[in-house]
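INTERNAL AUDIT FORM
Audit reference: QA-55
Scope: verify that the stored structure record matches its stored sequence.
Auditor: D.O.
Record contents follow.
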Amino acid sequence: MEQIMCGMLARSKAGHDAKTLYLVCRTEGDFVYLCDGRLRKFDSPKKKNKKHIQIIHKIPEALANWNGEALRDEKIRSILKDYKMKEVHDVESRCN
């Protein structure tokens, strides 16, 4: 199984939240704890089976030196928003 680290981004593959982008805030056995800063705050992350997520192996620059301390939900939303904007820009540049 692939190595999942705190600070990585992940996309849900199953459940009512399929295709939702999250930040991995904790790992525990076969489960990860995910937060998005909006519905799932850092203080109450979503517990999800590792089989039900797709890991994005790039750790955002804003989290490169993160040591696991609590993050503000605004920071999490900002990181996810920046990634989504970059993803859209990359797709648009490939289409032209």
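Auditor finding: record pair retrieved intact. The chain has one domain: 9-95.
Action required: none
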